Every structure is written in structure tokens, then in C-alpha cells.
DNA sequence: AAGGTCACG
DNA sequence: GACGTACGTGACCTTG
């Protein structure tokens, strides 16, 4: 049987734009910009390399746009009228794309009056008719219409897509995920939503969400438009009726022309696998030396100096680039996992350690039995000294039932004794990705690693907020590798499997384990070379060196300390909560007249509003009643006893499940304490976040909840000490916005909310002070009249009047807000007093809700972020200050944004308190001189509750 | 996996 | 004229 043919159609035009934005602005030896061409060339190379693979191409062609005019302009003159001119340094690269394609001896198709998309569609269909498979190399959403399968002469022939930037295959499920409908209906969705880039009108006011919902519901565009008159009265209905013409026009514009005449026959696209003659000359001419080396099959040859010249980049000018990483990048050979060494003898280990000493810079990664660094065992260590120059030292593989024989390995204690002097050597920098984890693992094995660098933290300090919906925060290694190195790492799943079939890393055969583990070190090393120079160029050095980098070992040590919790006390509370919730549940069922799941907001809503007939509105997309606290409180105030009981039930159920039950389960069997994990990159503003368990949200606001704090206790003979910054964010706002009245009030030690009440309402009462407090917070969070109105239960007009009064009484605030927004709009990021950047990619969004959300976050970020910087500096200085004073027994345990919790011998309290206070109060200095004092309140006691 | 709810600063 | 309206988090529950 004949081999299944597989045609790859490369959407060259769209690729080059994306490559331009993602790659550094490199120039070739003649000074021609070639960054995008380089990206394009490597992509072609990768595809050609896949020639013999199962999914690889047998035929390939590159399709380009000839010019911007097409038959669509005849139908609709405004088509693509909004397209901005391509950037200055991209224009000269277009002809080079053709050169590059020719250098590979690949066909390059373009046709007057036809867009690349139409040619691609026509070729794809033609090939499909022949029974071929087709892969469209593009991520253009318009092309997703083509994805799918038909029966060809020799069985099914499918069309899929490949996004080489994300290394993602796009088939029916991916299209359905993106559009919520099958590929055949994508055109209908596109017609409704329109496209601002191509200037396709769509229906005004309908975006991707509404569009896919409508099509999914009605089955087609025509059906949705036809049924509009029968819909219930709404804005959407009107829009559908009025926009019918626009939608029908858009439907034509987004339809791909699938019957273009083919300029060249399909058979001409056959790949022959012979390295083309002109390629070397092309690579040589443009200084693509690493590719040239690969062409020479000189794998593993030493690095030669690179011919490509990075262009100096002004940081302020790259706001438009989605990922914006447009800096010089040393060119490196592609990752070659076969180059890694498995170190199984002491001689080889000593050899690597000696080389690491000599190079003074080594990337390190540890492999363990679990993600929890406080319970895991060490399984192996990998080192990298350069690209592909990496090894894996297995230490804990095998030994279980499945592996009767332990593979040859160096004895753990022997290997650690050899590694320890290297890892503790002041003169050798150890590079990690998320080093806090490895620091804890190694510390538990008797090694105090120092000094360290951390690519995850560097990435955060450069790019916080930039990955918009990034899963995992956007600073994980796999993501960074994709983004900066264009390399896909082996995933843990690839090695260990998933679900029930998952095996522990310790049972992975050594050859596989080496590929995975050494690659991690290799990639970390490469990322460091790529990211570290950016710090200096983009102004990130200060925050990294002065705030975040010194904090890593400090936070690691806090995690290892943990905090003692009184298990018996929690158990008793759990029991009490259990009886009480059971009692409440019965009463609730009685009032409801039936049994139902009280914990189900859906069921509760139906009971309250349908069955019992209380008034309350439906909410949002799900069409479900809202039953949150504010709703229930309102009902309760109107005499609905059931609402009051549900509130009580929820309060107790929450405390039980989230705290009294969960915390008991989190007690570490070895230490008897609870060890949280802090994320240093969790919050875009620079705050820490806490997980497993979250110790930053232990109850304090209610008396019942505070009982949980009573279970956080010191060891015998010790006390807990809590030190809080008082009103730090308002103080910082007063300083940053330069508000004289507020600064004076803080200097005089006044109650700031009372002072605000005086300024705003002329008198201080319980009510005016409470209102003033709300307004003060509203200012910090980026105010809107509606938001404030909701909180204060007044009309928006009245809220606006208060905002006006506030701005008037505290001149400076309004200016701060305007100036902050202006700079964020212009540069794309906000900055704290210590230079921490937070990016706001949606600040200029055309979607109002999105834009306004970004605006509020941008107003808050410098304040919240500066506060985070300050407490981080205090934390980094705390233990040295205490040790200098002979107070080495004091242990710092927890951080809760503006609070630090310590455990110390009772007799040290007197000496330690003033030192702790001073370190915290002085933490901004000398980098920043604040015009307000930082107030610190300290308390001690036999529990965390008592320390407040 | 998502949405709702609620714990904290 | 409608949208949804306070910033930053994480955990648990129910439901699809």
C-alpha cells in the first residue's frame, strides 16, 4: 500500500509577524535586521527535521500574501483598512523570507488578488480530495474552519493545524475549546464577533463569548439571526436584528475561498530529504552560525563566538510586544539530551565537581519523591555547566519491590559529602529554577547552599503580570523554556505517566531519568544566560538584588521552621463545629420544609427564592440565584430566619473544613509542626502567597474564628510574638501621593480613619469613622462611584460627591491616580518605590470592563507592591540583626503581608522586641526615605491569638 | 474543571 | 446605552 501522503502548508506571512515580536532584534553582519527571518528559518528547519517521523511532512509548501488587496476589498472596501504599517525593521525582512524558503529549495506560493488563507484553503482541500493528510502551520483563527476529517479514496484524510510557537497541535477538540463550536461553525462565530485587526465588522457589542454561545445554542448564524425576533427583549436581541446585515457581510468576508486555481500542482511540493545546496550560503550570509554548525553535522562541537549582533533596546519602547522579550540572546546549540552523562562513580562525580569549581557557575536541580519538600526524599541531583554540558547523579533509584536490583549508584552520603563543599562554596554561584524548593531539600540533607541565583525569581522580576492568563503564573520552567529558548522540555508526565499508571521518579530507569533531570539543569543554565542580562538592561537589578534574591533562603528557612499547632484543640473545635452544624442543618431543613444540601448554593437558591418566595435576583451567566453573605444578610434583616441560620451554618462549616479539619491533616509527622509553602511569584504585585496550608488567611475577624488562632502555639518555655505594620498601605499612599494632611496625621500618631472622618464629615462618630475607613480603602483599591456606593449603601451620586470631597480635602490623591495611569498606559507597567514592575497588558484594552479592571489594579499595585517590598527587606535583615544582638534563638515563622510572627524563649522577648521593631520600621532605608514614619505594633502571648 | 463562596491582608 | 464595578490571594464544596 502506498505511503500516506502528508502535506504541510506553512502560513509564512502570519509566522513572520509573530516571530518578529517574539525574537530579539538581531542583525546580520551587514546590519540588516534578521530576527524574524532567524525565527522563520529555525521553524522550517524543525519541520524539515521531522521529515521521516510518523506525523512528519512528505510534501511542504510555504504560502505568502502577495499584497494587501484581495477580492474581499471589492465587496467591502474597508477590509483590513485598519492594518498598521509593518514596523520599520520588519519590512526589509519580507524579501528575506522568500530567500530563506528558496535556500531550503522549498516551493513558495503567492498569487495576486488572493490572500494566503485562500490559497491554503484551496491547497488543503485539493490534497484532502486526493486522500492526503494536511497540516497547516499557523495559529490563525480563520484557518481553524478547515480543521476536520473527510473520507478520502484510501480512508480518512484529515486537516489539522500546528502552532510551532506553542508547539501545539490544533485539531477538533482544540478548536471546540477555543470557539465552543465545531470547526464547521467557526465561520459563523467569526462573523458574529468580527475582527478588529482585519476590520471585519461583526455585530457591534458581540464578542467571542456571546458569539460562540449564540451559535452553539442556535446551531448556525442564520438560525440565530432568524430567531432573534422571538427572543426576550434585551439589548442583545436588538443588536442581532439591527446587525443582521453586518453579520451577513462578515460571513462572506470570513469565508475562505476553497476553489482557487492552484498555481503549482501538489506533486511539486514533494520533499526529497537531500540537504539543499544554497542553504549553507544563506546561513553564512546572515550569520546563523549555530544552524550552520548543525548543517555540518558538527553536534557537540565547542561554541564559537556568535556573528549575530544584538541590537541595543530601549525598554520603554517594547510595550506593544506581547511577551516583549526583545533582548540580546546568546545563541546556543539546540538541546541534545543524548549528550547528558549519568554519573555513577565517585571518580566521575569528582570530575564534575572539579569542573564546576573551575567554572564558578553551575546550574543545579534536585529530583525527589514528592512535590512537598518537607516530606520528600532525595532521589538525585543534576548539574549543568553549559548548553548540553549536563549530568545526572542518581542517588535513590530502585530499591523498591519493582526494582529488585538497585542500579549502580554512588552511595548517597558519599555523594553528598563530595557535593557539599561545592554547594556551600562562596565562590561558586549555584543557579536554580525555584531554588527555595531545592534549598529546603538539601538543607534537610545537611547542605546549606549558598550563594544562589534563581531563574524563576528573575523572570518574575522582569515579567510579573505579563502572561495574561498564564496557568502556573507564567514563571515555571517549562513555560520559560518554551518562551525564551523555543524548546519543549520533557514533561514529568512523559517520564512518570499520570494517574494510576504514574510511577515514582525513583523507579524511572536511569537513562530516561538522566534525560529528564539533566535537561532541567541544562535549561536552567540556559535560561539564566538569557534572563540575567535582561535585569540590568531593563532596570530589574535593584529589585532582584536588594529585595527578592536575598529573601529566597530566608523564606526557605521559615518554611522549614513551621509552626506548632495544638492538635487536640483543633480536634475539639472540629467536634463542636460538627454538632452545631448538624443542629443548624436540621433547623434549616425544617424551615425549608424539605431536606436538601445546605452547602449547595444552587439548591439553597431554589429553596429560598422559588419555594419560599423571598425576593432576590438571578445572577449572571449561570442563571443561578446568588446566595452570598450580603444577600443572606439582607434577607435575614428582613426577618428570614432561615437565612440567618444558613449564615451561621456556613460560618461553622467553613471553619471546620478549611481550618480545624484541614490543619490537623497538615501536621508534619517528623517535626510535629505545620509547614506552609510560600510562593515568591504568586502575586503579581510582589506579595508572597501561602499554600498547603494557606497560613495567611487564618480567621481573626470573628470570636469563633479566633479560637482557631488559639491553636497556634509556641514550644514549652517559648512565646509567640506578632509584629504588625500599622496602616502601612495608607502611609505609603500618603507618601507616594504626597498628601500633606495625611502625612501630618501619621506623624502626629493620629487615628487615620478618625482624621479622615473629620476632614470629610466635620465630626467623628462611629458612623462617620466607619465610612471614612471604607473610603480610605476605596482609594487604595482604585475607586469607582458605583463600587463605593454599593459598599456604603448610598446612591452613586452621593458616592461621587464623597469622592470629590476626598480629592479636594486630600489634594495629591487625584494627581497620583492620573499620573500612575498615564505612565502605565504609556510604558505598560507600574513601578514600586523600589523599582518592582508589574505589567498591565490590558490597560489599553478596548473592552471597557477589562480596561477599568486593569486601571484599578494599576492604581493599587505600586502601593501594595511597595508594602510587600518593605516587609521583604525587613525579613531579609531580621535574622542577622537578631544574631548580632546575641538573639540567635529567635525564630521567624510566618509572614502575613504586614505581619511577622516569631517564636522565642520568654526571656528573650524584652531584648528582641525593640530590634524587631527597629528592623521593620527602618526597612525602607537607605534605598528610600519615606516622608511618613512606619508604625510597628508588637504583641506576645501563649498563642497566635494572644499575641495580637 | 468551573463556579460560588468565604477566609485573610 | 449597557456592561459590572474595590485591590491582592488560596481552599473547599457542589455540580456538570
Automatic annotation (TrEMBL):
The protein, known as: DNA polymerase I
GO biological process, one term: DNA-templated DNA replication
EC category name: transferase
Organism: Altererythrobacter epoxidivorans
Region (Disordered): 295-333
Domain DNA-directed DNA polymerase family A palm: 705-908
Segments forming domain 3'-5' exonuclease: 340-536
SUPFAM superfamilies tied to this protein: 5' to 3' exonuclease, C-terminal subdomain, DNA/RNA polymerases, PIN domain-like, Ribonuclease H-like
Domain 5'-3' exonuclease span(s) in chain numbering: 5-272
Gene name for this UniProt entry: polA
EC annotation from Swiss-Prot or TrEMBL: 2.7.7.7
Cell membrane as UniProt keyword: no
SMART domains with a match to the protein in the record: 35EXOc (SM00474), 53EXOc (SM00475), HhH2 (SM00279), POLAc (SM00482)
Domain of life: Bacteria
Subunit structure, as described in the record: Single-chain monomer with multiple functions.
Described function: In addition to polymerase activity, this DNA polymerase exhibits 3'-5' and 5'-3' exonuclease activity.
InterPro entries per record: 3'-5'_exonuclease_dom, 5-3_exonucl_a-hlix_arch_N, 5-3_exonuclease, 5-3_exonuclease_C_sf, DNA-dir_DNA_pol_A_CS, DNA-dir_DNA_pol_A_palm_dom, DNA/RNA_pol_sf, DNA_polI_H3TH
Family to which the UniProt record says this protein belongs: Belongs to the DNA polymerase type-A family.
Amino acid at each position: 500500500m502506498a505511503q500516506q501522503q502528508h502535506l504541510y502548508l506553512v502560513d509564512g506571512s502570519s509566522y513572520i509577524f509573530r516571530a518578529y515580536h517574539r525574537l530579539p532584534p538581531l542583525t546580520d553582519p551587514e546590519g540588516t535586521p534578521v530576527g524574524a527571518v532567524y525565527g522563520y528559518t529555525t521553524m522550517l528547519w524543525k519541520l524539515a527535521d521531522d521529515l521521516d517521523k510518523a506525523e512528519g511532512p512528505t510534501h511542504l509548501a510555504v504560502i505568502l500574501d502577495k499584497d494587501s488587496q484581495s477580492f474581499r476589498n471589492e465587496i467591502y472596501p474597508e477590509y483590513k483598512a485598519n492594518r498598521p504599517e509593518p514596523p520599520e525593521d520588519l519590512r526589509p525582512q519580507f524579501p528575506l523570507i522568500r530567500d530563506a524558503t528558496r535556500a531550503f529549495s522549498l516551493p513558495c506560493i503567492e498569487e495576486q488578488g488572493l490572500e494566503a488563507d485562500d490559497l491554503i484553503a484551496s491547497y488543503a482541500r485539493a490534497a484532502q480530495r486526493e486522500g492526503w493528510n494536511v497540516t497547516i502551520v499557523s495559529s490563525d483563527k480563520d484557518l481553524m474552519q478547515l480543521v476536520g476529517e473527510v473520507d478520502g479514496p484510501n480512508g480518512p484524510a484529515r486537516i489539522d493545524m500546528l502552532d510551532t510557537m506553542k508547539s501545539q497541535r490544533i485539531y477538533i477538540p482544540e478548536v471546540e475549546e477555543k470557539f465552543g463550536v465545531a470547526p464547521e461553525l467557526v465561520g459563523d462565530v467569526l462573523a458574529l464577533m468580527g475582527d478588529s485587526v482585519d476590520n471585519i465588522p461583526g455585530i457591534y457589542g458581540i464578542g467571542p463569548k456571546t458569539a460562540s454561545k449564540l451559535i452553539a445554542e442556535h446551531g448556525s448564524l442564520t438560525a440565530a439571526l432568524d430567531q432573534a425576533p422571538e427572543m426576550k427583549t434585551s439589548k442583545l436581541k436588538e443588536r442581532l436584528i439591527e446587525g443582521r446585515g453586518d453579520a451577513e457581510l462578515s460571513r462572506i468576508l470570513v469565508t475562505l475561498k476553497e476553489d482557487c486555481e492552484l498555481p503549482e500542482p501538489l506533486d511539486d511540493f514533494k520533499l526529497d530529504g537531500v540537504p539543499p545546496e544554497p542553504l549553507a550560503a544563506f546561513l553564512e550570509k546572515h550569520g546563523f552560525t549555530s544552524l550552520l554548525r548543525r548543517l555540518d553535522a558538527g553536534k557537540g562541537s565547542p561554541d564559537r563566538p556568535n556573528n549575530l549582533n544584538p541590537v541595543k533596546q530601549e525598554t520603554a519602547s517594547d510595550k506593544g510586544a506581547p511577551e516583549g522579550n526583545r533582548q540580546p540572546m546568546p545563541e546556543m546549540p539546540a538541546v541534545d539530551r543524548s549528550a547528558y552523562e549519568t554519573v555513577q562513580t565517585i571518580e566521575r562525580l569528582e570530575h564534575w565537581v572539579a569542573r564546576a569549581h573551575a567554572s564558578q557557575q553551575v546550574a543545579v536541580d534536585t529530583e525527589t519523591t514528592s512535590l512537598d519538600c518537607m516530606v520528600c526524599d532525595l532521589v538525585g541531583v543534576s548539574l549543568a555547566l553549559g548548553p548540553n554540558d549536563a549530568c545526572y547523579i542518581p542517588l535513590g533509584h530502585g530499591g523498591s519491590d519493582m526494582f529488585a536490583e538497585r542500579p549502580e549508584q554512588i552511595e548517597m552520603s558519599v555523594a553528598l559529602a563530595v557535593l557539599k563543599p561545592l554547594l556551600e562554596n562562596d565562590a561558586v554561584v549555584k543557579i536554580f529554577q525555584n531554588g527555595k524548593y531545592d534549598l529546603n531539600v538539601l538543607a534537610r540533607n545537611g547542605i546549606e547552599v549558598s550563594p544562589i541565583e534563581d531563574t524563576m525569581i528573575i523572570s518574575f522580576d522582569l515579567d510579573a503580570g505579563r502572561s495574561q492568563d498564564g496557568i502556573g503564573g507564567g514563571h515555571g520552567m517549562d513555560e520559560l523554556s518554551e518562551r525564551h529558548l523555543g524548546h519543549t522540555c520533557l514533561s514529568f508526565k512523559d517520564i512518570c505517566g499520570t494517574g494510576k499508571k504514574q510511577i515514582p521518579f525513583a523507579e524511572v530507569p536511569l537513562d530516561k531519568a538522566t534525560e529528564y533531570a539533566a535537561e532541567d539543569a541544562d535549561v536552567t543554565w540556559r535560561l539564566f544566560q538569557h534572563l540575567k542580562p535582561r535585569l540590568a538592561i531593563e532596570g530589574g537589578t535593584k529589585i532582584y538584588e536588594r529585595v527578592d534574591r536575598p529573601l529566597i533562603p530566608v523564606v526557605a528557612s521559615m518554611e522549614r521552621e513551621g509552626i506548632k499547632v495544638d492538635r487536640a484543640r483543633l480536634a475539639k473545635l472540629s467536634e463542636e463545629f460538627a454538632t452545631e452544624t448538624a443542629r443548624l442543618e436540621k433547623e434549616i431543613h425544617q424551615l425549608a420544609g424539605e431536606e436538601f444540601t445546605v452547602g449547595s448554593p444552587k439548591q439553597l437558591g431554589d429553596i429560598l427564592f422559588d419555594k419560599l418566595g423571598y425576593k432576590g435576583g438571578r445572577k449572571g451567566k449561570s442563571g443561578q440565584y446568588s446566595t452570598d453573605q450580603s444577600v443572606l444578610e439582607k434577607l435575614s434583616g428582613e426577618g428570614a430566619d432561615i437565612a440567618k441560620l444558613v449564615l451561621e451554618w456556613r460560618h461553622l462549616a467553613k471553619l471546620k473544613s478549611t481550618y480545624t479539619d484541614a490543619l490537623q491533616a497538615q501536621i508534619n509527622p517528623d517535626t510535629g509542626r505545620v509547614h506552609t509553602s510560600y510562593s515568591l511569584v504568586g502575586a503579581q504585585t510582589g506579595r508572597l502567597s501561602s499554600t498547603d496550608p494557606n497560613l495567611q488567611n487564618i480567621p481573626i475577624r470573628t470570636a469563633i474564628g479566633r479560637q482557631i488562632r488559639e491553636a497556634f502555639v509556641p514550644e514549652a518555655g517559648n512565646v509567640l510574638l506578632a509584629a504588625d505594620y500599622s496602616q502601612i498601605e495608607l502611609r505609603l499612599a500618603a507618601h507616594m501621593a504626597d498628601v500633606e494632611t495625611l502625612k501630618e496625621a501619621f506623624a502626629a500618631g493620629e487615628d487615620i480613619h478618625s482624621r479622615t472622618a473629620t476632614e470629610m464629615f466635620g465630626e467623628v462618630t462611629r458612623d462617620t469613622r466607619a465610612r471614612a475607613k471604607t473610603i480610605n480603602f476605596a482609594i487604595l483599591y482604585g475607586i469607582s462611584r458605583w463600587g463605593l456606593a454599593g459598599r456604603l449603601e448610598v446612591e452613586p451620586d452621593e458616592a461621587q460627591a464623597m469622592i470629590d470631597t476626598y480629592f479636594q480635602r486630600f489634594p495629591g490623591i487625584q494627581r497620583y491616580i492620573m499620573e500612575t495611569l498615564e505612565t502605565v498606559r504609556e510604558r505598560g507597567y507600574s513601578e514600586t518605590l523600589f523599582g518592582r514592575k508589574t505589567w498591565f497588558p490590558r490597560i489599553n484594552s478596548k473592552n471597557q470592563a477589562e480596561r477599568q479592571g486593569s486601571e484599578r489594579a494599576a492604581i493599587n499595585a505600586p502601593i501594595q507592591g511597595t508594602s510587600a517590598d518593605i516587609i521583604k527587606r525587613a525579613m531579609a535583615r531580621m535574622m542577622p540583626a537578631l544574631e548580632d544582638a546575641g538573639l540567635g534563638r529567635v525564630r521567624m515563622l510566618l509572614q502575613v503581608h504586614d505581619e511577622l510572627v516569631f517564636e522565642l524563649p520568654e526571656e528573650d522577648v524584652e531584648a528582641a522586641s525593640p530590634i524587631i521593631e527597629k528592623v521593620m520600621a527602618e526597612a525602607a532605608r537607605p534605598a528610600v526615605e519615606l516622608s511618613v514614619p512606619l508604625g510597628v505594633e508588637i504583641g506576645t502571648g501563649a498563642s497566635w491569638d494572644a499575641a495580637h
